TrEMBL record:
Record-given protein name: DUF640 domain-containing protein
Taxonomic source organism: Cephalotus follicularis (Albany pitcher plant)
Example GO biological process: mRNA transcription
Residue spans of biased composition, Low complexity class: 9-42
Domain called ALOG: residue spans: 43-170
Family matches, as PANTHER family: PROTEIN G1-LIKE2 (PTHR31165), PROTEIN LIGHT-DEPENDENT SHORT HYPOCOTYLS 3 (PTHR31165:SF95)
Keywords recorded for this protein, A-Z: Developmental protein, DNA-binding, Nucleus, Transcription, Transcription regulation
Principal location: nucleus
GO cellular component: nucleus
Chain positions covered by the region annotation Disordered: 1-49, 161-193
Keyword Transcription regulation attached: yes
């Protein structure tokens, strides 16, 4: 058996090399070195791909099976409700004594659901993935009005049930640069002579 030198798995050109170690070494030296960020997808891109594959699997397992072209906002809502069974966020019901408490002092039988922020981020990634995979923006089921209304309803319900406000964070304005500060100062006295 030939021994194969350890290769950097992030360099895709190395995956198709022969077992001959001299060819592998020559090819590695001759290939351009790419930066990790250009050859490795970002965490966001990986998550988006996984989410897209999960949604595709959901459509395949749907009864009757659905094609993406026949998918509507109603199917997206069905998918979001299906995902709730895997949620880890306790959402208190109005009859629960801990309704509106962010840190309840004792356990309760209230259901676990997907957190609003997770659903919102998921829909954002799926919207982008739909268009990247050839979908037209005006036909994007992830941008349907019903989906936006559902997300708003989930946000409001979880906000009340968990006693947490989901107010939009205000952007901080960057401090003025030093160059601007220097130009607004009056000239030193010796410069006026």
């Amino acid at each position: 058996m030939n021994s194969i030198p350890e290769m950097d798995s992030s360099n895709s050109e190395n995956t198709n090399l022969h077992n001959n170690s001299t060819n592998a070494t020559t090819a590695t030296l001759a290939s351009p070195i790419s930066s990790p960020s250009s050859s490795t997808p970002s965490r966001y891109e990986n998550q988006k791909r996984r989410d897209w594959n999960t949604f595709g699997q959901y459509l395949k397992n749907h009864r009757p099976p659905l094609s993406l072209s026949r998918c509507s906002g109603a199917h997206v809502l069905e998918f979001l409700r299906y995902l709730d069974q895997f949620g880890k966020t306790k959402v208190h019901t109005p009859i629960c004594p801990f309704y509106g408490h962010p840190n309840p002092p004792a356990p309760c039988p209230c259901p676990l659901r997907q957190a609003w922020g997770s659903l919102d981020a998921l829909i954002g990634r799926l919207r982008a993935a739909f268009e990247e995979n050839g979908g037209k923006p005006e036909a994007n089921p992830f941008g349907a009005r019903a989906v936006r209304l559902y997300l708003r309803e989930v946000r409001d319900l979880q906000s009340k049930a968990r006693g947490i406000s989901y107010e939009k964070k205000k952007r901080k304005r960057p401090p003025p640069s030093q160059q601007q500060q220097i130009s607004t100062l009056p000239p030193p006295p010796e410069a006026l002579r």
